[in-house]
């Protein structure tokens, strides 16, 4: 069975006599959530469900048969991988790209839902709208998917980017050299901090470049019912640098320094697959943990069973940008490593973190080119500019504590811009890392061990053993 890449970030099996023969990827019925921005509509694909079929000689066999075969010796480990994990392990997919300038459909009247009292009107944006600005503004109920507007395909050789000094970053002061954040373990005092103030001192990472007073995003569901939220208004980037857009009834999202994860999100989510996260602004105008929170702290540690680091051997800085999930699903949580620096990445335990429609989710990062400033890398980017959600490469990672009890980390080409390429090499390194991934800038190949492909649709997935560390090394090759 060949070790192959799948979008879920869970590795496929690698047994000499058996191999996955077909990999089917299908979106759930709710498929696409349409969000209207000032000049564009953003289509957000729901998490992808992956089905794996194992093929032995001329017939399909079940995963249980594969497991038993490995156990009793009738099947053997291949030289290029490890045994498969579950067939339905999704990854948190962020809202991708603006692809149309059509008007959003008006929200449907939902009689069966309880309608909340209208929240105070949000302040108008304080800056002029920019052309093709892709920040989502509102969720609308699902409608028919319009035809995709095909943009001209650029050459992989994108224009060079200017290097900025990004050594002064807010997350650097929160995390020590062992990846520990003392503030992140302080219990959050519900109902004492006004919604107009960012909750400093409890591990939350302020995101200044979003222009929302440190919040990474602000969502205000206009409808709420037993079956979820709908018509979710998302405050536009740059609307309130003082944070006053976080008002009663809103969920105000925040980042956590890697390797920590956001702990506060509501127990119900979007009716059509949208996700919502952050602190809740209550009727008295004070912040409190949402009712689905997984801790009494704003941030929780990622998996203690494996560690993920990034080491930069380049002459310029590189930003890995984690998606705000659950939440606005924008790529706003930064890890920027300068030349010679090493940083941690958050890596969740599948069974202990957020479940989307009953399915476990992993952490996902957009990997930017070297030299892109953090405030341009970790935000919505312009179409085909090679930054933000248009960055060339995506990295996903998690520890499977549900079935396989092993870590899985994946690297693949960003499907939004399959002609963009990173301007450096990536190599997975570490003892206990099986079938390590790599990317070679000279040949534009993604490699699984020593097997490489120039096909942008093929990525790679490595497994990581218990107690081991995966180090993602960035170099000139």
UniProtKB/TrEMBL annotation:
<feature type="region of interest" description="Disordered">
    <location>
        <begin position="87"/>
        <end position="165"/>
    </location>
</feature>
<protein>
    <submittedName>
        <fullName>Cell wall synthesis protein</fullName>
    </submittedName>
</protein>
<feature type="compositionally biased region" description="Polar residues">
    <location>
        <begin position="152"/>
        <end position="165"/>
    </location>
</feature>
<dbReference type="GO" id="GO:0031505">
    <property type="term" value="P:fungal-type cell wall organization"/>
</dbReference>
<feature type="compositionally biased region" description="Basic and acidic residues">
    <location>
        <begin position="100"/>
        <end position="135"/>
    </location>
</feature>
<keyword id="KW-0624">Polysaccharide degradation</keyword>
<dbReference type="InterPro" id="IPR051526">
    <property type="entry name" value="Beta-Glucosidase_SUN"/>
</dbReference>
<keyword id="KW-0119">Carbohydrate metabolism</keyword>
<keyword id="KW-0134">Cell wall</keyword>
<keyword id="KW-0326">Glycosidase</keyword>
<keyword id="KW-0961">Cell wall biogenesis/degradation</keyword>
<dbReference type="GO" id="GO:0009986">
    <property type="term" value="C:cell surface"/>
</dbReference>
<keyword id="KW-0964">Secreted</keyword>
<dbReference type="GO" id="GO:0009277">
    <property type="term" value="C:fungal-type cell wall"/>
</dbReference>
<comment type="similarity">
    <text>Belongs to the SUN family.</text>
</comment>
<dbReference type="GO" id="GO:0000272">
    <property type="term" value="P:polysaccharide catabolic process"/>
</dbReference>
<dbReference type="Pfam" id="PF03856">
    <property type="entry name" value="SUN"/>
</dbReference>
<dbReference type="GO" id="GO:0016798">
    <property type="term" value="F:hydrolase activity, acting on glycosyl bonds"/>
</dbReference>
<keyword id="KW-0732">Signal</keyword>
<keyword id="KW-0378">Hydrolase</keyword>
<dbReference type="InterPro" id="IPR005556">
    <property type="entry name" value="SUN"/>
</dbReference>
